[in-house]
């Protein structure tokens, strides 16, 4: 055998490491937040530059956020919500994790 591992085996090993599930969940939430903002922006026909200007951030920072590459702060989410003329809703949910 060549000693190479397949993706499934590597993923199982990584997910068994301490903190891996929590990191995966954080990455999923960042991706979902970014995707939601991108969808709202595109529904309005806005460019990233237009939303970034309205939210007081750079276009490149918005692009990273929309791609799920950064975890935004609550003040940033509030600025984006205000720019999109929407309300930011943050809540705790006792529901089971989908991950």
Automatic annotation (TrEMBL):
Superkingdom of origin: Bacteria
Single GO molecular function: DNA binding
Natural source organism: Kribbella caucasensis
Gene Ontology CC annotation, any one: cytosol
Cited InterPro entries: Cro/C1-type_HTH (IPR001387), Lambda_DNA-bd_dom_sf (IPR010982), TransReg_Diox_bact_type (IPR050807)
SMART domains, sorted: HTH_XRE
A Pfam family annotated for this UniProt entry: HTH_3
Transmembrane feature ranges: none
Protein's recorded name: Helix-turn-helix protein
Keyword list, A-Z: DNA-binding
């Amino acid at each position: 055998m060549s000693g190479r591992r397949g993706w499934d085996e590597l993923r199982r090993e990584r997910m068994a490491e301490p903190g891996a599930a929590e990191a995966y969940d954080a990455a999923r939430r960042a991706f979902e937040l970014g995707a939601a903002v991108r969808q709202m922006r595109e529904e309005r026909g806005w460019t990233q530059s237009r939303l970034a200007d309205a939210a007081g951030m750079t276009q490149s920072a918005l692009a990273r956020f929309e791609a799920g590459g950064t975890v935004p702060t609550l003040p940033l989410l509030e600025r984006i919500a205000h720019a999109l003329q929407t309300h930011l809703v943050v809540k705790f949910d006792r529901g089971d994790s989908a991950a």
